[in-house]
Amino acid sequence: MYYSTTYRSPVGPITLACDGDNLVGLWIEGQKYHGDTVAEAMIEKDDLPVFVTAKKWLDRYFAGKKPAVSELPLSPIGGEFRQGVWRILCEIPYGETTTYGAIAKKMAARMGKEHMSSQAVGGAVGHNPISVIIPCHRVVGSNGSLTGYAGGISTKIKLLESEGVDMSSLFVPKKGTAL
User: Fold this and answer.
1) Separation between Cα atoms, residue 38 and residue 77, nearest integer Å
2) Of residues 136, 139, 140, 159, which has the active-site annotation?
3) Range of the domain at 91
């Protein structure tokens, strides 16, 4: 059984989902793949301890604090490859960015492979079911392109700016994904 609640954030309404004990989803309203990893209907229940903890975490995050991902019980739903990519996302420090290529290199090393497709990594990043907390917004193209955010490019920019990321070398592509 899955439960949901809503959180009002500076980037719009957010839906949180849990299995009763662990957070399984966080989607910004209008985001691509909203709720797609939870196959069954969710029951709205605002007062579950995991939701109370997650909302306090989000309050701190949006207040400019640097809460650690490890403070929350996360259980994103996805296959082994995606889980591996999401673990790497959790390692990206607050206020910093990395590239799809850098994540691909880490994944290749962890899987004992010589190479890994940046596009495969991009697919896993884009399907991250716990946005903001698992910081997929911190991933940019190797050329500084702000592309690939399921929550929308303007939301990605707001999140990065709120973390104090130096935006001077980053740009919005003329064509690309998630625009």
Assistant:
1) 8
2) 136
3) 80-162
